[in-house]
Write a structure and sequence with these properties.
heterodimer, A: about 900 residues, 5 domains, 10-stranded mixed sheet, 7-stranded mixed sheet, 30 helices, B: about 110 residues, alpha+beta, Arc Repressor Mutant, subunit A, 3 strands, globular
């Protein structure tokens, strides 16, 4: 018989045990009778010989080995019966736990999906990323370095341990069929899909013969582009589409949810077909490389091999590859800066769960105290202490598990709204799902919390002083239990203080940040990226003509006051960091201070409302052929020149000082100083490593760089009407603003500057919202907790209060008596809480941009809220105590 | 009745296994036979017999079936499983070795160093 058979046949086994022992007794009795004993005496003798039948049975049950399980089932049933008998208690406890465990499970679901799950490709642990590496490269500022296309081809050819694929980010305009639209383009090598182990939804991947100049023009569409532009039409494969004025045949569609480097992209084309010069240059490093370890290969082996290849390339091409190597690192999802935020939220939500646990613990304890008699009775009947502890723990585990189940239900409906609420897009949002990890987490969390809140009541299960407990009738209250109760209240209040202060800190931070001057006038400014038609991009004169055409035509659009073209924007992704120096003796690259470079057209200051502090901004006279000029902001002025006059001085900027850039000059002339703009957003700018800024005329960008620059340019428009109202006419007007060339061009990523400024605080706002909710929950739970504990404690003191009243205390005295007790606990909690909140404040400072250390004013605002709420919660029990009828109270004992 | 001695730890299982090895037998008969065979020297407290039987059954050394006795009553008959037989052989052998060893030691202490 298996253990579970034994368990399920428990009833039958009990009957058989009974029958077996009865048989024994009867046999023995008969034998004794045969020996001449009287029937009664024989029965007595045989019973004596066997011992107490119940004891023998109990020993037999123990011998079965499934005893603990049987007990568990029994305790489980008993626990459920007890809960059903006290629906009020059960409802409060379960609701509390469902809130705590639900919130925690939601947060864990998100943490799991975003941070813990491996990449959604087969055998993700064998995937690696290959980065370029030089000693002068500052990866902390610029991110990991990509690889030059010729270098990539050499590595791919030489590597025995890695199978490699490359991709290059670019964009393009998808013309026919339909309205021209800017699309995210990924130029990929043909191995990419097979290497990742990803199948296409329809069609096929690229062939090797398509991956070379002059190969058949083929394109793979992403699932969402296919849905958006072709309505998921199955016959799209085989159609031809126009991409950057060139016709391509669609050969495949990706599966829904396919992502490369965390982004879906719109179209994929073969990298080998691109004849662009920068792809032939070993000094330019555009190729992102993913690789898979070949069977049997290990990462150290691959790294050693790449190092060797790097050295060979350095020897072969010393001009371009001096000091350049390659490193392989395990491929990890890029989740940006959400990591700390998510862990912070999980921590905060953990505090809420902890408060919920403490709450339930105090409820359980109150119940346990009133159950003293029952437990004492069990001890008297022979239950061991261990057995009682087990029973109590089973009860709390049942509560904890039910809370966990409710928590999973809450989480199942709650995590989607949470992900949608996330400001901007949560990286890997599509990975956020309930899975076995979440279930395991919920199970563990609920069992641990069950143990946590069940331990205190369980450990006070009585063994000694059974007699007293039985006699006292469960009315007197041992001092230890009162201390424990106060301990619960104190810790609840302390936890609530931490959350409240954290929310207060976030609120203050948000207020402070919102009132900061962004450095630009954000009202009525539209910013949008602009993709010129490929025909216009063909030669430098065409590009300049097209941009002039764009500016001229946009100015004619009704509602447009002024317009400028610019390459980077404050508070939007994308920046250009360049090293500078204020003398001709420029130090090596990694020792130069950095500044943010922005190229713009002359109206930029007027559009953005940036104040001109000294000198002048550029005008139409600053063009190719005239002296190369820059305008610096006050931060750069301070950093480069201190208090000295800077207009008319020169700056050496190696990246812009070549013969191509500044017309033979090795430096740039500073012609003006403007106000600082919070480029990194309202929150992050103060702590940003690079804050200095300078502007240079777009008209002075050399011919060779114009095409690349044009791909990055945006336009900014100051309007006299709400900016979004000009979008349609602007779009229509600029579609043909090609400076006479043919082809499609498009606006994309249309935003207002106000949106950008507001989005730069979205993370803080979101955290404030959540911490506000958590703090509110914590406050509510703490109030329920203090109410419950006080109601219970005063209930226990009814006889005492009766005596006091009989001796002349009036209602006010009684209220004061109870409130004094509760205020002691509240202030104890506040004291502990403030200490903990100071620690939590430091943590927040590291995790949230723009956060400042805990100011006393935050405490002064938040702590009284809690004290007031807790006092109000204790007023109810106090008032009830004051209405006790002394006669009845005294008679009770 | 002769002087009774307490059973050394663990020997009850061995005795039960040996008795059951002689053929299927019910609990009461085991108690009887233990007393008879040991000529009253070994007396098993009947209260500890049944937990021992259940423990052995639980460990798979004994199996049990409900059968009719000669008097036509239903009783639980225990018999030895194959695992039980192996266990009996090893335990009997080790018991034998122990007795011999103890005997040797005792002889030594009586006769002095030879």
């Amino acid at each position: 018989m298996n253990w579970w058979q034994r368990l399920w046949r428990r009833k039958k086994m009990e009957e058989q045990l009974e029958k077996e022992l009865r048989f024994h007794l009867e046999q023995h009795t008969n034998e004794l009778i045969a020996q001449g004993y009287s029937r009664d005496e024989a029965r007595r003798q045989s019973r004596l010989a066997l011992g107490g039948p119940e004891q023998v049975k109990e020993n037999c049950r123990d011998a079965r080995g499934t005893r603990w399980l049987e007990d568990l089932v029994q305790d489980f049933r008993y626990a459920i019966r007890m809960l059903r008998k006290q629906p009020g208690f059960a409802a409060v406890a379960l609701l509390t736990l469902a809130l705590g465990s639900g919130a925690t499970t939601v947060m864990f679901t998100v943490v799991n999906g975003v941070l813990l799950k491996p990449l959604p490709y087969p055998e993700p642990d064998r995937l690696v990323a290959v980065h370029g590496h030089t000693d002068t490269w500052n990866a902390a500022v610029y991110g990991e370095q990509n690889v030059a296309y010729p270098d990539f081809l050499d590595c791919q050819r030489s590597s025995r341990s890695l199978e490699m694929a490359g991709f290059v980010y670019s964009g393009g305009i998808l013309g026919e069929p339909g309205v021209p639209e800017y699309v995210e383009r990924r130029e990929i090598t043909p191995e990419l899909f097979s290497l990742l182990g990803v199948l296409l939804l329809r069609g096929r991947a690229f062939l090797t013969e398509e991956d070379r100049p002059g190969g058949a023009p083929v394109v793979i569409l992403s699932y969402s582009l296919w849905q958006r532009r072709f309505a998921g039409e199955p016959r799209t494969v085989g159609l031809s589409v126009v991409l950057d004025d060139k016709s391509y045949t669609v050969v495949g569609i990706t599966r829904p949810g396919f992502q490369l480097d965390g982004e879906e992209g719109d179209v994929f084309t073969p990298l080998g077909q691109d004849t662009a010069a920068y792809l032939r240059n070993r000094r330019v490093h555009p190729v992102g490389v993913v690789a898979r370890l070949r069977p049997g290969a290990k990462l150290p082996q691959a790294s050693a091999e790449l190092e060797l290849i790097g050295r060979q390339l350095t020897a072969q091409y010393p001009d371009s590859n001096k000091g350049r190597g390659f490193v392989a690192v395990p491929l990890r999802p890029d989740v940006g800066d959400v990591r700390s935020t998510l862990w912070l939220l999980l921590g905060a939500v953990g505090l809420v769960l902890l408060i919920a646990c403490v709450n339930v613990a105090s409820l359980l304890l109150a119940r346990a105290v009133s159950r003293d008699r029952e437990l004492a009775m069990r001890v008297a009947l022979g239950a061991s202490r261990g057995r009682l502890v087990r029973q109590c723990l089973t009860e709390s585990a049942v509560l904890g598990l039910s809370g966990g189940v409710l928590g999973v239900l809450v989480s199942a409906v709650g995590f989607r709204p949470f992900v949608q609420l996330w400001p901007g897009t949560l990286p890997r949002a599509e990975e956020v799902q309930l899975d076995w990890r979440v279930l395991l987490f919920a199970l563990t969390a609920s069992l641990v919390s069950g143990l946590l809140f069940g331990l205190a009541p369980a450990l006070r299960a009585p063994v000694r002083e059974v007699e007293q407990a039985l006699r006292a009738g469960g009315r007197t209250l041992a001092g230890s239990s009162r201390r424990l109760h106060s301990g619960f209240v104190v810790s609840e209040i302390a936890l609530a203080v931490v959350l409240l202060v954290a929310a207060g800190l976030l609120g203050r931070t948000l207020l402070r940040l919102s009132s900061l001057n962004p450095g630009v006038n954000t009202r009525n400014v539209l910013v949008t990226r602009m993709a010129l038609s490929p025909a216009a991009l063909a030669h430098p004169a065409g590009i300049r003509a097209a941009w002039q055409d764009v500016l001229d035509r946009a100015r004619r659009v009704p509602g447009v006051e002024s317009i400028a073209a610019v390459d980077t924007f404050p508070m939007r992704q994308g920046e250009n960091q360049l090293g500078y120096w204020n003398t001709p003796a420029v130090p090596p690259e990694n020792q130069q201070p950095l500044a943010l470079a922005t190229s713009a057209t002359p109206d930029y200051l007027r559009v953005m409302g940036i104040p001109l502090l000294k000198g002048r901004f550029f005008d139409d006279h600053d063009r190719r052929g005239s002296d190369a000029v820059i305008v610096i902001d006050e931060v750069l002025a301070q950093q480069a020149f201190g208090t000295r006059e800077c207009v008319g001085k020169r700056l050496w900027i190696p990246e812009m000082s070549g013969p191509n850039w500044s017309e033979g000059n090795d430096s740039l002339l500073v012609v003006g100083v403007v106000g600082h703009v919070r480029h990194w957003g309202l929150a992050r700018d103060d702590q940003a490593p690079v804050r200095a800024q300078f502007y240079y005329p777009f008209a002075q960008v050399p011919d060779g760089a114009l095409r690349r620059w044009s791909e990055l340019m945006s336009i900014a428009v100051r309007t006299s009407i709400p900016p979004l109202n000009v979008v349609d006419s602007l779009r229509r007007e600029l579609r043909g603003a090609t400076g006479g060339a043919s082809g499609d061009q498009a606006l994309y990523q249309v935003r207002t500057l106000e949106q950008l400024a507001s989005d730069s605080l979205a993370r803080q706002r979101f955290l404030l919202l959540l911490f506000g909710i958590f703090a509110g929950l914590a406050l509510l739970l703490a109030c329920i907790g203090i109410y419950g504990v006080l109601a219970y404690l005063t209930g226990q003191r009814v006889p005492e209060i009766g005596v006091r009243m009989a001796l002349g205390a009036n209602a006010r005295d009684v209220i004061r008596l109870v409130l004094r007790q509760s205020l002691g606990m509240i202030f104890g909690g506040v004291a502990v809480g403030i200490l903990a909140a100071l620690a939590a404040g430091r943590l927040l400072m590291h995790a949230v941009d723009g956060m400042q250390s805990t100011e006393p004013s935050t405490l002064i605002i938040t702590v009284p809220v809690l004290v007031l709420a807790a006092t109000l919660a204790s007023y109810g029990p106090a008032r009830r105590a004051s209405r006790i009828d002394p006669i009845r109270a005294l008679r009770q004992d | 009745m002769a002087e009774k001695s307490d059973l050394p730890q663990g020997t009850l299982d061995l005795l039960i296994l040996k008795i059951v090895a002689l053929g299927p037998v019910h609990g009461y008969a085991i108690a009887q036979r233990l007393e008879q065979v040991s000529r009253g020297v070994v007396q098993v407290p009947q209260g500890s017999l049944y937990p021992a039987l259940h423990r052995l059954e639980n460990r798979g050394l004994l199996a049990a079936d409900w059968e009719e006795t000669e008097s036509g009553r239903e009783a639980k008959f225990y018999r030895l499983t194959r695992k039980g037989r192996t266990q009996l052989e090893t335990e009997a052998a080790s018991w034998q070795r122990l007795i011999e060893a103890v005997g040797l030691v005792l002889k030594l202490s009586e006769g002095g160093v030879e």
